[in-house]
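Format notes (please read before filing issues)

Several people have asked whether sequences and structure tokens are stored in separate files. They are not. Every record keeps both together, in the order shown below: the sequence lines, then the token lines. Line labels are part of the format and must not be stripped during preprocessing.
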Amino acid sequence: MKFKGTKYQLLNVGSGRIFDDQGWTLTDPEGGAPSLIRAVYENKQFTVREDLKGLYKYADWLPIHRTLRRSHAPVTYKSRGLAEYLGMENLYITLSGYVPKRGARMETCTFKETEAFSVCARMKKNEKRILVIQSAGNTARAFARVCSDNDIPLVVCIPNDNVNDLWFLKKLKPCVKIVATPHGTDYYDAISLGEKLCKDPRYMAEGGAKNVARRDGMGTTLLSAVSVIGKIPDAYFQAIGSGTGAIAAWENALRLGEDGRYGENRMRIYCVQNAPFTIMYDSWKADSRDLLPLSPEESRRNSEVILAKVLSNRKPPYSLAGGLYDALKQSGGDMYKVTNDEIVYWMLQMFNKEGYDIFPAASAAVAALKQALEEGTVRPDETVMLNITGAGMLNATSKGFELKTPDLVLSPDLSPEEIISSVDKLF
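Then the structure lines:
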């Protein structure tokens, strides 16, 4: 049976206005105060589509027009090894990565695949514009792989210091181009580069957190967990760079609460950053909706120091309506910060207790869970979802891999015209 697309409308979270999607709507066209928009699906009940494969089994809650090749969904299982070590009774790990013994087969080893397969499926097959994404690493690898496999033209903007994350199990097709900002720049510089490129109508901004397909793709982690647990968890843990994944989890918790078959939505959102890059942690602890000041120089210096480099966004969707501040407030959640040493410790413990390697960002979430248990914020008998956002690189790359070097290195200080002209030549 051919997939005909998902029926949905869009909601301005701040104003409550509901309106139709014009194809790639990222904000309310009527304007107003800064706000995320949210997908409102025709199907109000959570349904697993047995007729669709991979991530698309959750298509009824994905704002998509088609399905793509080679997608995989997150996998949830009840922990034994880590749970026993932490003294927990109901710890569920939602795993995105390449750990075949657990049923996880994302070859890029990151839950960013959930974003890529949803965002790219929101694009119609006849789309002529070139998609542009900005990334600190994992998002670049996921979108590059998905677009290469499905012949979708793409420009990836990434800091040159993060290009070691551009490893692939097979060579990318020419439809994917990598444009890096120079050494010493950060994720925000890559964002600036992409924004200037998208001033040309031939290029289309993916949209980041503003793209409902990105958030609802990420939100499939919670759908995976609820499918196994049978109810909405009491607590959710995730490391964050932008906070988009945590926002996505909260949005799906709201939908599941409205469904009514999975208990009341009392899920508390717990997020963690890697010190010293703690702009959201610091703002949250100051009870400030506005982000505290962080200079470009300090941001770049801190992003160089942290082990989990993907957790380094200095302009995250924190303050606007429906953003991370609201998700934390509404859920009764909290923020944590962890050190590089804690991250290394829990990477080793996860390998010992669960049998697979995890990325530094995922390890930060484990460290935060340990902190929450020690301070009594989370009880040992509560049902907890731990979002392991990246794992299995050792397994995936055991037979070799290829590092993709940038096709072009451009300063984000160049004019839009200079950037557009340079990138045009790649195609």
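For reference, the curators noted about this record: The chain has 14 helices and 18 strands. The mean pLDDT is 96.
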